[in-house]
Structure formats: structure tokens, C-alpha cells
TrEMBL record:
Species this chain originates from: Vineibacter terrae
Pfam family, one: HbpS-like
Name of the protein described by the UniProt record: Heme-binding protein
Alphabetized InterPro entries for the sequence: GlcG_carb_metab_protein (IPR052517), PduO/GlcC-like (IPR005624), PduO/GlcC-like_sf (IPR038084)
Length: 127
């Protein structure tokens, strides 16, 4: 997953930080590409934590914006919950088995990088 995500990031010219987490949202692989921001390390880990733990992409939390029902949720889990684009759950047979996250590009770039990793994982499974 990380190799495919890294190839996409390099294709886009983005110095990303990549994180793959287990189903509980804890990192099992972390990679900071050359030029990747030190501050993006924690952001990528938090995106992976949120996507795995809540079983949906991090950008699907519009209800966490000010004035909405879930506003303030990002203060939970020691501040690890994030609504930035770029964290995606990884599913096998409808069950979340982990997540992948990227930090360093804009939302569209982070999404493309993560999707490349997910696509590689699916190919590995023969799906």
C-alpha cells in the first residue's frame, strides 16, 4: 500500500507523509517522503486513526463544523480526531481492517495518493 501511495505522490510531485493503521487506528507503517513536513507526521497518523476508528473517510464529517451537531468531536480522543481530507478506511468484505492516510498535499492530492494505496491493496487481494 505504501509503495503504491508513494509512487502516486512522487508522480504528483508532492512530499507526502503516509500512514497505514490497523483496525483500531494505530499506526503499523509510517513513511515521510523526502521533503515531507515534520508537522504532517502527526496529521497523517490522526487521519488514519479517525478513518479506522470511525469507519469512514475523514472528509465525511461536515456535521463536525461549527454550529453542527458533532461540533467539538475533534477535541475528543486527546485531539486525535480530525476532519481534514486524506484519511480513508480500508475494507475487506465490508469490514474495516485498517486505514490509510496522507498529509502534505491538498485534499485532491491526498485523496489520489490514498486511493492509489487502496487500489494496490485490492489488487493484492485479487479484487
Amino acid at each position: 500500500m505504501l509503495d503504491a501511495a508513494q509512487r502516486k505522490a512522487e508522480e504528483l510531485g508532492i512530499p507526502e507523509v503516509l500512514c497505514v493503521a490497523d483496525a483500531a487506528g494505530y499506526p503499523i507503517a509510517l513513511r515521510r517522503l523526502d521533503g515531507g513536513k515534520v508537522t504532517s507526521v502527526q496529521i497523517a497518523m490522526n487521519k488514519a486513526f479517525t478513518a479506522a476508528g470511525h469507519r469512514k473517510p475523514t472528509h465525511n464529517y461536515r456535521n463536525a463544523l461549527p454550529g453542527e451537531e458533532a461540533f467539538g468531536i475533534f477535541t475528543q480522543h486527546e485531539g486525535r480526531f480530525t476532519v481534514f481530507v486524506g484519511g480513508f478506511p480500508v475494507e475487506v468484505d465490508g469490514k474495516v481492517v485498517g486505514s490509510i492516510a496522507a498529509s502534505g498535499g491538498n485534499g485532491e492530492q491526498d485523496t489520489a495518493v490514498c486511493q492509489a494505496g487502496i487500489d494496490a491493496f485490492r489488487r493484492h487481494l485479487g479484487r
